[in-house]
Recover the amino acids of this structure.
């Protein structure tokens, strides 16, 4: 349970860091995401999900 809380805290930290350093770039990226087809976003989501799982699996083993 402690690791999950640390992971969530790290996500908030990284996202907050990007928002603080690059606010205008984040807005343009969000506009780009808004105009991207859902199927492409879903594909990217699955790819990142698999990469994240593989990283966690590699570190845990």
């Amino acid at each position: 349970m402690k690791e999950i809380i640390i992971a969530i805290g790290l996500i908030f930290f990284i996202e907050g860091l990007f928002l603080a350093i690059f606010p205008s770039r984040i807005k343009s990226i969000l506009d780009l995401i808004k105009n991207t087809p859902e199927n492409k976003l879903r594909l990217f989501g699955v790819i990142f999900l698999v990469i994240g799982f593989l990283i966690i699996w590699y570190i845990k083993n």
